[in-house]
Amino acid sequence: MTVEVLAHCADPTCKPAGRIRQKNEDAIIKAAEEEFARHGFKGTSMNTIAQNVGLPKANLHYYFNNKLGLYQAVLSNILELWDSTFNNLTVDDDPATALAGYIRAKMEFSRRHPKASRIYAMEVISGGETLSQMLSQDYQTWFRGRAAVFAAWSAAGKMDPVDPVHLIFLLWGSTQHYADFTSQICRVSGRSRLTKQDYQEAGDNLIRIILKGCGLTPPAKDA
Amino acid sequence: MTVEVLAHCADPTCKPAGRIRQKNEDAIIKAAEEEFARHGFKGTSMNTIAQNVGLPKANLHYYFNNKLGLYQAVLSNILELWDSTFNNLTVDDDPATALAGYIRAKMEFSRRHPKASRIYAMEVISGGETLSQMLSQDYQTWFRGRAAVFAAWSAAGKMDPVDPVHLIFLLWGSTQHYADFTSQICRVSGRSRLTKQDYQEAGDNLIRIILKGCGLTPPAKDA
DNA sequence: GTCTATACGTTGATAGAC
DNA sequence: GTCTATCAACGTATAGAC
After folding, report:
1. How far is the CA of B137 from the C1' of C14 (A)?
2. Residue A128 phi, psi (nearest 5)
3. Is B15 near strand D, with its CB below 7 A from some atom of it?
4. pLDDT of res. B222
5. Phi/psi zone of residue B65: left (φ > 0), alpha (ψ -120 to 50 degrees), beta?
6. What is the distance in angstroms between the Cα of A68 and the nearest Cα belonging to chain B?
7. I need a labelling partner for B17 at 20 to 30 A (CA). Which of A194, A197, A206, B40 fits?
8. B:26-55 Cβ neighbours of strand D under 7 Å
9. What CA–CA distance (Å, rounded) separates A54 from A49?
10. Is the CB of A30 under 7 A from strand D?
């Protein structure tokens, strides 16, 4: 039961990073994620988001200006989460350990943030133009840096000479599948939801096949 | 410049599988695929489809009754295409040859029918309820049959004892990625589009890694 | 900062002339 | 079978009282 001073500042453009604003913005974004993950940008209505968060829809426009602004805020959150999760591989790492760790981290991301993954997937499927405006131009550079690590490992004879670019797509596709296609996985396997253990087994399986497929010996299984 | 008899039959409920009807329905479905692949079910408007196909939107309702009917027709086409493409693996096949052929077929599907793949992906991400109503209840049975083939190969010592269910998800996820995430792949790799050769190389790479990862020796490379 | 009322375009869908 | 005209519902967005 928090008591808040409603107007701490006479200037309405003053954005104090105040608790109310922060709290409301967070609640709106959370409700927006739910809708965007299910219906994409065009298919989502501000009205529904407002109802689900329990605020008049005018408030959504007050905080985020318009629908695109809210969508970009949601995407921005996702990209931030993404960056903070994957502190990436370096040439000096042991390939097997690093690759296994990366697969684990991606699977854990799919498990803990399936909605973020689905919003991202919908955006990319829809052409990714909004995302493209938000991503820095270094994105290609960053990607080539990641690929270069695999290339270096291959060149040093630490792993098979696999195409590093396609290896990354294999890692992305196979791990993301568990977040985006959950409904299909549940249907064909007769489950109502995917448990932590399901993700553990899926990760084990990916690590076993992909590492062996790259000529690497999996490290001792971690808990 | 085809000349058609406009009303070959006085009864308006008479559906002669006529050339006009067939031609119009096909054109509508084709335009609908474009929109559904980009915006999903909710995000797509009948108006836009009608404009793109060059017909009044009332005609769309005449042919498909309502938006859901059109969507189901589109999905139904995709499922049909899917079924006719994958005449599936059997226990008697040689594992390496069959698996390589399956990966090739899936990649070819991603290359030739990216829109079908994206519509399907959007539907599944959105919860897959429409799809679920259309799929027969034998779907689980069918899936278990596919998994049993891999299990039999493993039990016979023809390949490593990998979890057959997760192996299927690996195959689906890694191949579908090239259709659904084309925009991202183009962005990070600096291409404007994916060529036939790109798909060829991607397929080669998947076959090499996955087969080796399952303890199989890839068959002689086919053209 | 919040919320009611409302403007105004677009939506899916239909009626009815041709 | 085709197409124009139209409907009620819903879409985003804003004005303005509090």
Report:
1. 36
2. 70, 25
3. yes
4. 54
5. left
6. 14
7. B40
8. 55
9. 8
10. no
- pLDDT for res A70: 98
In contact, B159 and B153? CB cutoff 8 Å: yes
In the numeric block, which tokens belong to residue A40?
Answer: 């994409």
Higher pLDDT, A104 or A85: A104
Between chains, do B208 and A178 touch, taking CB under 8 Å as contact? no
Each residue's pLDDT tens digit, B136-178? 888 999 999 999 999 999 999 999 999 999 999 999 999 999 9
E strand map for B42-177: none
Residue B121 confidence class, pLDDT cut points 50, 70, 90:
very high
The model's pLDDT over A156-196, given as tens digits with 9 standing for 90+, comes to 999 999 999 999 999 999 999 999 999 999 999 999 999 99
**Higher-confidence position of A146 and B13:** A146
Query: Residue B37's closest CA among B66, B78, B80, B68?
Result: B78
Q: How confident is the model at residue B16 (pLDDT cuts 50, 70, 90)?
A: low
CB contact under 8 A, A172 and B167: no
Decide: CB of B9 under 7 A of nucleic strand D. yes
User: What are chain B's domains?
Assistant: 12-65 (1.10.10.60), 75-213 (1.10.357.10)
C-alpha count within 13 angstroms, C-beta hemisphere, residue B125: 36
- Could you give the CA distance from residue B164 to residue B144 in angstroms, rounded to a whole number? 9
Using a CB–CB cutoff of 8 Å, tell me whether A221 touches chain B. no
- Give the pLDDT mean for B70-99: 93
Residue B143 and residue A189: Cβ atoms within 8 Å?
A: yes
Count of CB atoms situated within 10 Å of the CB of A184 = 23
Q: Is the pLDDT reported for residue B120 higher than 60?
A: yes
| A128/B187 touch (CB, cutoff 8 Å), yes or no | yes
pLDDT at B4 over 50: no
Hey, are the CB atoms on B187 and A132 less than 8 Å from each other? yes
Choose among A39, A185, A211: nearest Cβ to B40: A39
Report yes or no: B122 at the A interface, CB cutoff 8 Å: yes
* Nucleic acid strand C within 7 Å of A45 CB: no
DSSP for residue B217: P
